[in-house]
Amino acid sequence: MALLPLNEALANMLAQLPTPTETETLSLNQAANRVLAQDIISPINVPNFDNSAMDGYAIKLADLDQFSTFTIAGKAFAGKPFEGEIKSGECVRIMTGAMLPTDCDAVIMQEETEQAGENQIKFTNSIKLGQNIRRVGEDVAKGSLVLAKGSLLNVASLPLLASLGIAKVEVFKRTKVAILSTGDELVSVGKPLSTGQIYDTNRFAVRLMLEKLNCEILDFGILPDDPTIFEETFVKAQQAADVLITSGGVSVGEADFTKDVLEKLGKIAFWKIAIKPGKPFAFGFLGESEKQTVFFGLPGNPVSALVTFYQLVQPALARLSGLNDDYLANLTPKMTACAATNLKKAAGRQDFQRGFYFINEQGELMVKPVGQQGSHIFSAFYESNCFIVLEAERGNVQAGEKVTIQPFNGLLR
Ligand code: AMP
Ligand code: MG
Fold this sequence. Notes:
Structural class: alpha/beta
Radius of gyration: 30 Å
Number of helices: 8
Strand content: 25-35%
Bound molecules: adenosine monophosphate, magnesium ion
Number of strands: 26
Strand order of the largest sheet: 7-4-6-5-9-8
């Protein structure tokens, strides 16, 4: 099978993934990191009334033609409006957020005034109609679309809903994701290692990333390299979860059974991608069409597992969780930087090298590679803040050449 370019794999995969259908209604307090299953239309104007943007004095602008000093008729506080009406030549002492008194059409900030006798005030600067006034509906107009279906509910969007007095939202149910690692050599953290054994890094890394993506996690542990056990466990996971993510056993070694079992239990969509690290990656479905579980088989090498999760599983889970196309389009943005050192690259596959980007003294965006680039060298991740994305056909890069970088998003930071 020829190697599949990443963008083709991604497009192919996203086209096959279902969007969620099941929803639930939650209070705003419970809705952090959930995905909206409805459009939100504003029930009110924000602000709901004209109000002052400053501490100062509210006047009728036309009075300036006749008066150079004004009498203070009363005070307006946020939450305690000035109730009366002002006469010609009067003003109202007003605080930030207080409702604009009837007929007033400008607010002069405190710092641009002078005392002119008891209860009298003078204005020192020129004044414009409507200055320092926050108008009704200026932030959000009643009846307008505030958040579209498929938006993420987070620190930017939830307070906005609170400002509209919306107490409950309809969200998609969380994606249930089963995870497991495969390999006779693997031991869970916390247990002692025997000869030839290693700790299971991938299940730990995958769990952390799924927690960040607010998925519901079902942990099926470590499977020995035994196709019968694979089959039994895959069936259980298929019944319990929307998604199964495995690692290891997707290559062509003699203990690599994932692909065979997957072919028996469902269908495999593709499994070799033209990226480095991360070539062996399986995508498919387990079970019949009524209860299909999406399958992702990550490579065993921890760096490859993380890279393929970031590049492929992350957008797939965004789609499965109901996040909209706008969100997906900005999930892993790229930019152009200047290589600070030479980079080693063999032409053939698209490279995702671990890099560190920074701004140099001339203000230019630069990037340097971090540590060794082998797919078994996990330690380099900690010091890196981006992927250096090198085109498949590109060879070695000289210092000073332009390269594409992909700063880590919240998943890896
Ligand atoms: P495999 O794809 O199963 O042949 O694994 C490739 C390499 O990744 C081998 O060196 C494995 O020991 C290693 N590996 C597989 N799974 C894990 C894991 N969960 N944590 C750490 N290393 C792993
Ligand atoms: Mg293995």
